[in-house]
Structure prediction request, 463 residues.
Amino acid sequence: MKTRSIIRTASTAALAAVLLASFAPAGARAGQTTGQVPRIQTVVIDPGHGGLEAGAKGKFGNLEKDITLAVSLKLKTLIERNMGLAVFLTRDRDVDVSNENRASIANNHKAGLFISIHANGAVQRKAAGSETFFLSVNATDEETRRLAYLENNSSELQTRIDPSSADDLMMILWDMAQTAYIKQSSRLAELVQAELDAMLGTRNRGIKQAPFKVLTGVACPAILVEAAFISNPDEEQKLASDAFQSRVAEAIYRGLVRFIRGTE
Amino acid sequence: MADKKKVVISRPALVLGGLALVLIVLAIIFFTGGTGEKVKHFLDANVPKSPESGGGEAAPKTVTLFFLADGDDLLHKETRDIAAGPTEAEEAERALAELIKGSEKGFVSPLPPQTKVRQVFIGSDGLATVDLSREVAEGFAYGSTAELAAVYAVVDTLVFNFRPVKRVVILVEGVEKETLGGHVDLTRAFLPDYSLVAR
Prediction:
């Protein structure tokens, strides 16, 4: 079983390398290098967890999945009302959605931005504050070159890979799609985190990188917002309140506006 | 039919012939320097290595474990003696079992205490495959911070203490699981992340 898994990992890497090597380096570059983002028309909001997968739990019985959905619905309303962009949710009810399907929903709707909303949980009850994540990739030496190539050629990823393709090789590349948007995602995280810090009155835990599954396959700037700690009794009560949820949504919305307008 | 009879009759002769053949092969192994070297090499590879203190089998090995503290979100080092050998994979299993068992200095284990280490396999390519029991996923309702701490406590403990280990893959009940609690991607190998470790 283990050997099989190792062989699979190795062959996956090898196949992806071969496929990437076959990309011609010619062609139009994405806006990545110039810092410009293609015009954003659609935002996909991802309420974390759902259904049987409740996420973190609070001492008072609040569930991460319920808070993430409430904040997401508020954020959707704000964006639709004020920005006139199309907004899709990866779930609008209490249902299970796999991480891969969440990324697929974003890619199939040609999302220009992807915002995953979560409530944090730690083993230590005292842990508190708000933070915004973007993807980190566990890149080994041989992978680093491929990732650097993707990072500089995100337009090729968009134009040359058909998301509906069932081909395994294509799926492998889609699985790494976010690596082409790391810089933009980092900028988005920075702007959203600054607004969370300004509006929530929680401890500012800053922006961080982590290998979160839900972000890996998303082919646009993508962040994961941890609004506050549901494992901290004080913050759990805040998270459960309508007023705090509205402030979280408003802060994320302001961050998005700043990102889209490209202002500092 | 006739052939069958012949075989039955000549069985003792066959046994003798077989023995003679074994002797010849042994003689070849004995006299050929190259082959002899190879055999010796192979045997050496199986002998348990104790890289630090070249002590015998009974000498303990000191490992560094990574626990959580109440006051911050960092991983804190704590050393522990475990039985050494016979293989590094078995030492790694013991180190992880100690990590799960918890701290002796009041730190908190980032892993659910019911978790069992099913097996650790260390490949020649530096990839350690850790197989944990289902409790590692079911024991906690993980938030991102807790899940990151659980994963990197395992990864850092293995890479920090066992020189051949460069990367770590985590399996649950022998199979690949997407995440422990919906956040951290387990389908790729992890490099250690010491940025979470307190200085």
Remarks:
- The radius of gyration of chain A is 19 Å.
- The interface with chain B takes residues 1-2, 5-6, 9, 48-49, 53-57, 64, 98-99, 118-124, 126-127, 133, 137-140, 210-214, 216, 224, 226, 229-231 of chain A (CB under 8 Å).
- Chain A is about 50% helix and 15% strand.
- Residues 41-134+181-261 of chain A form a domain with the Aminopeptidase fold (CATH 3.40.630.40).
